[in-house]
Amino acid sequence: TKPVLGLITRFSPQQINLSFWIMAEMMPLVLLLVLGSIINGVLNAYKLFVIPAVSPVFRAAVTIATILFLKNRLGIHAVAIGYIAGEAFRLAVLFMMMRLKSSFPIALHFELNNEATAFLRSLSHQVVCLVALGSNMIVDKIMASWLKSGSVTILHYSDRLYMIPISILTAGFFPVALSYWSHYQQQPGRLPFSEVVKSML
After folding, report:
1. What is the pLDDT of residue 32?
2. Kind and range of the H or E run holding 197
3. pTM of the model
4. Based on C-alpha coordinates, what's the Rg of the chain?
5. SS3 133
6. Are 107 and 58 in contact (CB under 8 A)?
7. Are 66 and 78 within 8 A, CB to CB?
8. Where residue 92 falls among pLDDT bands split at 50, 70, 90?
9. What is the pLDDT of residues 108-165, one digit of tens each?
């Protein structure tokens, strides 16, 4: 990572070293996000929408509190630790809610049959698209690093603005719509999606 950053950015050696350590500190966030997303999906599938919807509030509160508590001692590293603490707390809340509200046993089981193979094949297409989308964001920030000081920060804040309407759709509308749609799709005489949306409204 360090040699690549040195070639494609105008960061100083100190900035490159700091970027490396911040990235390393935030690696556990990947696992926490994956587990949280799985439990989110389970709760949404069983039409338990409230806790998944408000859980980001719990995460934000713990994240902000952790950063404020540690910022004077750890500086920018408090942000990475805050994200980890916030997501871990959110995961704990989601897990407890799943155990309280669901009537099914929680277990991990995987069998590579034809259905699983078809699922993984479809999943691979999504992964490739998301990697391409994520790479585009990295390229944007690399290009911004060649501009005047503060350009990366300005670009980051600009990116957050367009995420507001996207978040309303992906975290608000789609989980509810897809849960109801999947329920109707399992019934005899399946309804088209337009009818499902009308029934929800």
Report:
1. 92
2. helix 193-200
3. 0.61
4. 21
5. helix
6. no
7. yes
8. very high
9. 666 777 877 887 887 787 778 777 776 676 777 777 777 777 776 777 777 667 677 7
Task: Give the distance from CA 136 to its chain's centroid.
Answer: 17
User: Residue 184 has which token pair?
Assistant: 């109707």
- Please give the residue that has the higher pLDDT: either 84 or 115: 84
The two structure tokens encoding residue 44: 């949404």
Residue with tokens 């005047």: 148
Q: Under a CB-based contact definition with an 8 Å cutoff, are residues 179 and 196 in contact? A: no
Q: How far is CA 159 from the centre of its chain?
A: 15
Name residue, tokens 């991990």. 108
The distance in angstroms from the start CA to the end CA of the chain is: 49
Total residues found in the chain within this entry: 201
Distance CA 108, CA 103 (A): 16
Q: With beta carbons less than 8 A apart as the criterion, state whether 90 and 109 touch.
A: no
CA gap 79, 26 in Å, rounded: 9
User: DSSP letter string over 114-131?
Assistant: HHHHHHHHHHHHHHHHHH
Residue in the block written with tokens 């950053």: 5
Distance CA 197, CA 171 (A): 16
Q: What is the mean pLDDT of residues 48-63?
A: 87
